[in-house]
Specification:
Elements (H helix, E strand, L loop, with lengths): L3 H16 L3 H7 L9 H14 L3 E5 L3 H12 L3 E7 L2 H8 L8 E7 L2 E6 L2 E6 L3 H7 L2 E6 L9 H7 L3 E10 L4 H14 L2 E6 L6 E6 L9 H13 L1
Helix pairs in contact: 1-3, 2-4, 3-4, 7-8
Amino acid sequence: MAHPAVVTIASEVNADIAARPPVEVTALLEGADDWAISIGAGEYLHELVKRLQPRSVLEFGAGRSSLVIASALQQCGGGRLTSIEHEPAYVEASWQKMSRFPAVDASLVHAGLRMRLSTRGLWYEYAGIDRALKTRGPFDFLFIDAPPGDRGRDGTLLVAAPYLVDGAVAVIDDANRPREQTAIRRWERTLGAERVFEAPHIGRGVSVIRVPRARRPDFSWRTFVGSIHDRVSY
């Protein structure tokens, strides 16, 4: 069962942003393209970070969302942000604004995507990020908004899991899509992840999960075979 305090906070944040959306988030996302985080998801992410006050955040898929996270960290005293991105040119303009948040130790890690077969399955994974995860972790909060499209996001949490603190919280964007829901079910099987809150009405859907214990994923034949089936089907 998910930690009751996290469940309560995740639900309260949803009610809070419905009553008074954060003005600063709208400004940070002004002029964003279709690939960027939606205003609704940005508002939720901003307020959840402020409420949970994580010390070290790991982000898969940098950009405007990086500024949203940094803004929230700045407002709650600072912290560390590590963002993994495979298209650095796309996020350059956003990251030039990171100096607005001097209390945030922000690091943008450029890493190409590659398909890799391991005991975890056949996933698209970010190449060569283990050192960054080891030196910048452990992480108590994650935001997962990449890889894009049919490459799937399953591998993100599976790779990051050993570098988390017990009870780390992850927010998954685009959670209304079937592939993201499949990824969450696989995390439940292999990591014991717990669904804390789901909001299909926020942007393209937002899910909040909690990872009770930092560890390497358990082997699952169902997940392993399913990952290969995904690659054949898409």
